[in-house]
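Morning. Coffee machine broken again, so started the prediction first thing and wrote up yesterday's gels while waiting. Chain of 78 residues, entered below exactly as on the submission form.
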Amino acid sequence: MKNPFAKQDNNGVIVTVLLGGLALGAVAYLYLTESGGKTRKGLKKKLKQKGKDLAANAISKKTGLSKKLVKKVANHVA
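Came back before lunch.
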């Protein structure tokens, strides 16, 4: 039978709770404050641009078309 009074290692649980709280705080800031909304819009814009760049690189490598041309087409499609 396991000893219920033996000292247990709870470091993993503590770290998980702290990281979860930090993530929840970041999400709350982004969605519940006005400046967080501006930050969220800026992040969305940057992520969209990065996605277009990655897609243009991949398509350019596969098809041999120039990256500039692929980006122009992507801007009209999206």
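DSSP finds three helices and no strands in the chain. Going to sketch it on the whiteboard this afternoon.
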